[in-house]
Fold this sequence. Notes:
Elements: H1 5-8, E1 10-13, H2 17-36, E2 49-55, H3 56-60, H4 67-75, H5 85-98, E3 100-101, E4 109-110, H6 113-116, E5 117-120, E6 131-137, E7 143-153, E8 156-159, H7 160-164, H8 184-194, H9 198-206, H10 212-233, H11 250-262, H12 270-287, E9 291-294, H13 303-314, H14 320-340, H15 345-348, H16 350-368, H17 373-385, H18 403-422, H19 432-445, H20 458-461
Helix pairs in contact: 2-4, 9-14, 10-12, 10-14, 11-12, 12-13, 12-18, 13-16, 13-18, 14-16, 16-17, 16-18, 17-18, 17-19
Amino acid sequence: xxxxxxxxxxxxxxxxxxHTMGPMVAAARFLDEVQSGSWPRPSNARVTRIRxxxxxxxxxxxxxxxxxxxxxxGLCGFLPATLDLDSAEETLATVREQRRIIPQDHxxxxxxxxxxxxLDRKTPLPGHANGMAFEAxxxxxxMLLRRTYFSIGGGFVVSGDELKxxxxxxANTSHEVPYAFSTAAEMLRMAERSGLxxxxxxxxxxxxxxxxxxxxxxxxxxxxxxxxxxxxGLSYAGILPGGLKVRRRAAQIYGRLREEQSQNAVGPLHAxxxxxxxxxxxxxxxxxxxxVVTAPTNGAAGVIPAVMRYLSDFHNGFGxxxxxxxxxxxxxxxxxxxxxxxxxxxxxxxxxxVGSASAMAAAGAAAVLGGTPxxxxxxxxxxxxxxxxxxxxxxxxxxxxxxIERNAFGAVKAMTAASLALxxxxxxxxxxxxxIETMRQTGNDMSEKYKETSLGGLAVNVPGC
Length: 465
């Protein structure tokens, strides 16, 4: 099994990888097929109107997660990684005013957001909670093309046919890479046989598809984007959009920590405070629709950057090489989790998002702090084990409460797990593969109302209106 580090980590926008980035990618993908004309249709038929229908979790929390905006932008030809956030608002306003989308190199299509973007909460599509359909019509109202897509977490999108296909849609199953491990146990066996670190094996796999220079540049760009997101989050105050009137807190907390730091007033919760403020800065930016890195999702985007920034600021010797080692190691763990369970809140709850991010961060921290492969696997297991059963219950469908603080706890747990693992020799009772399988089973048993639908948990006990 091979899942690239650049599939695990994607540069995009907030507030959700499943509900914002995925639908934008799906819309753009449908647009490409419309343009290609490689589908059966009458010879003189021409697409004049497009319609989009959101189902299941996407319908329940679509507005709160900005899914409606993402679909419109995707149908206008934009993609998460390159979207100009400043021009997005102008584009959305133009579409709503003209009731028409005019993607580049397309003739333009009728699209009235009030009528052609439908949130269907009654009929979920079979196969996955995050289902959507796109339809193309001619001038007489005859449907020419219909495609279904599913946003399966972390910005990954599959079509209805791909979801039904026996081919693994979660990862590249090519065995052309030298270290094609699909479980943590295989990873440890390969590390022992080869004498290589987890990051070195992961890098060797990446080099099958990319040059060393390309890999390094990509990893450096990921960190630069993460770090810039933290800095923005530490700079802005005010109220987050969405109607809950949640106040940004990271900037204020950061100011107090800097003041204490200047006075050498290091408190007993020093590490927790800095990890938390970095994580909250990212997720406040994510909630505001800013530029983030899915790590491995937007809902959990703050955990890994927080741990990396903490190590960068408070651990000597955390430079470019260590950052790359961290990202490669954590991506190896993320790939194993995604292959054998899920990183999607809609599939397994928040254990799959924040829990996976915490496990990945713990592994990355243990690696750069000198841990052996066994200690790294142990760190990931400790972090994930103590996130099991966590539901995904965003109030009003917004990635704000409890999501922002959960990232802070995920970062703190990651460093705690790394510390515990490094104090041992790698021998432990519960292994990561067993923990991942337990998460998968727990997610399958979990009621749908606790999986990103905002139909249970805090979302119903703390009304958002």
